[in-house]
Amino acid sequence: MLRLSACQLLLLLLLVVGGETRKAKPNIVIVVADDMGYTDAGFHGGDQIPTPHIDKLAHEGIILDNYYTAMICTPSRAALLTGRHPMQLGLQHGVVRATTPFGLGLNETLLPQYLKKYGYATHMVGKWHLGSFKLVYTPTKRGFDTHLGFWNGKTDYFTHMDRGKGNASKTIGLDFWENLKVAREYNGSYGTELFGNRAVDLIMSHDQSKPFFLYLPHQAVHAGITPQPLKAPQEYLDRFKFIQHDGRRRYAAMLSVLDDSIGNLTAALKKSGMYENTILIFTTDNGGPADGVSHNYASNWPLRGCKHTNWEGGVRAVSFIHSPLLKNPGTTSHHLMHISDWLPTIMTAIGEKLPSNIDYYGVDQWPSIQFNVSSARNEIMHNYDDGAGAIRYGDYKLVICCSINKNGWYPEEHFYIGANQKPYIFCGERNSSLPSCTSADKYCLFDLASDPCEYNNIASLRPDLAEKLYNKLMTFADAAQPPRDKPSDPASYPDSHNGHWTDWLDKHPIF
Known about the structure:
There is one protein chain. The chain is an alpha/beta fold. Helix content is 26%, strand content 15%. It contains 13 helices and 18 strands. It has helices at residues 6-23, 52-60, 73-82, 86-89, 111-116, 191-204, 234-239, 246-272, 312-315, 342-349, 366-371, 413-416, 463-478, and strands at residues 27-33, 62-64, 67-68, 121-127, 146-150, 161-163, 172-174, 177-178, 181-182, 212-217, 278-284, 319-322, 331-333, 337-338, 379-385, 388-393, 396-400, 444-447. The radius of gyration is 23 Å and the shape is globular. The chain starts with 5 loop residues before the first helix and ends in a 33-residue tail after the last helix.
């Protein structure tokens, strides 16, 4: 019989415990800021709106400088949670609205469903926006153990009411849920603070024998509903009295609340002891809605365009990853990355593999993030829908133009950006000899390495490359799923459901 000395037993115990520690799956926290502008992040050079907590996490983590999303909410959220492209999901056309009976297909497996297989507790706090016309499309039926928040695309920040398109008296109703219960008791609580506090509570009460997953898609800084879509507590509004423009001042206050809530989240992770084994991902869902788009006043300066466009201001987004587990913190990654890459990247980070029978658009970026090796991605199909689209290939970007609405550079630098701002992006020079990009052009080509602000259409100088990229995008579009969008259904109206939005097709036939 083998006998071990006390020292040998201690050494064996340390090895076993150490091995278990190394194998412990990391906690995953994903924070999504809604409609945050590229230059509104302090670490991107903006100095008008202080974001100290976001900036600290970014600077001590890895800033993702070449990171892209879809140009609007629903497609980005779907891509993040499935690892698939919105065009593969039939979500390339628009957003799920409160009145429209469609959503992310039930045949798709979501990140929380993957993580539950590996023992994770899965929680969601915030905005869903992936379908709720039937209960099976809602968060707790799609992999989340718990959910506090709203199912549709926007709500008032204090009343949590949403207004849909149609008869105004019939289409305003409460959209706030605690799991599958209509949650009326939170009326008067400011949404960003409410979500931030719930995230802290989940962290502090977590049973750490299980790994932890928190998906925190914040309401901020998306506009709420009219007549005053931009709301914040008075103490935050008072911080920005120096901003003359009312909409921009309100936006700044909303972003400041978000930054403070992220500071509280980080503090909770540290206080709970979970921080050392947590990977925190921060991303926006699209570029900022500038110049009054969607009733909002974000800044993407000096990038061209804004939310709802395929210009850089609509799809180049704010993102970073922060974790004590990173090998090279305090750096900036310039490797090309798409929002759909998060799912395969996270799976590698937790030591698991994805099924081989699913056609993921996302690629594993963990080696690129951890060791700064070349990205597995060299192109991004931004989108193609209704004759408009864009593709990036290496440093080149082809834009199939588009309506001319919000085709410029918003907003004016002197109007929104602080006096001490130093440019984060240098635009290069405008070349007056090159044609402008208009809707009359078949497509426009830009070299983002020298022209990140999309000033100079070089399609006439590189016709072979332009045609190659056009054909690549068309091939991808030909293989896309048809848009899932459906017309509005009056049976959804809250006046038929005790004054709240609900899974109406579980109760009513389609009109």
